[in-house]
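Student: Please help interpret what follows.
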Amino acid sequence: MKMKNIFSLAVIGLAALASCSNIAEDERFIPGEMVGGGGKNILIEDFTGQNCVNCPLAMEELDKMHKTFGEKIIAVGVYGGPFGKSATGKYYPLTTDLGDYYNTKMNISEQPYANINRKEKISNYIAWSGIVATLLEEEAKITLSCENSYDSASGTAAIKVSGDALSTIDDAHLQVWIIEDNVVSLQRLPDGSVNKEFVHNHVLRTSVSDKDGDPISIADGKNFEKTYSANIDSSYKPEDLYVVAFVFSANGVEQVVKEKLVKAE
C-alpha cells in the first residue's frame, strides 16, 4: 500500500501536546527467572503517531522490553489515528491508510496505545511489560514459521508461512505484514520539539494478506501452509524489512513470528 507522504511542519499545533494520553506510574514488571514457559510469542501492536509527544517514551519502553524478553515479543508500530495527521488533515510521512484503518477498527482514541496479543488494550506503557509476562505463560496452540526470499531485480518477495496445529482453533485467520526498521523521519518529542532525524523501528508498511487476515483451517494434529507474493515499494530498504506473520482468533493472537525479508549472508 502506497503511503501518503504529504506533510507540513508548519501546521503541527502545540495544542496536540495536551492530547496524548496521560501516563500513570503503575508498577513495572521485574524480570524473574521463569518467563515464557507456555511457548507463545507476544504481538504488541503499538498505536503511535509522529505528532504524539508521549509516543517516544513508549518506544523506549519497548526497547527495554526487548532486552528483557528478547525475541519472545514482536512489536509493530501502527502509525495513524489521532496523531497521524496535521491540523489540516494531511498525513505525516509514516501514516498509512492501513494504519488509519486499524486505528478506526480497534477504536483507538489516544496514543500511545498497545493492543497486546489482541487480548489486552492499554495506554499506560509502564504496565505493558507486566501484561506481557503474564501472557507468555499461556500454552501455544500452534507452531508457526516463516520463510522469505527476495528478488532484487523485480522487487518482489515470496513468503511461505507454515505450522503445526497442537489444538483445533475455530475461526482462525492468518495475518502477514511487512514492517521496516531504521526509518529516519520526524517525531515530536516530550518537550514539544520536533526531531527531523528520529529513528523509527518496526514501522508497519503494508499487509501482504487481506488487511483483516485470511481465513485458515487449524485442526488438531494437522499442518498448514500458505504462500504469498508481494511487490516491495522501491522507497523501502529491503535489508531493513521483516515479515510478521500471526494467527489470530476470537481468543486473540494464537502465535506470531518475525523473520527478516533478506537474510544476512
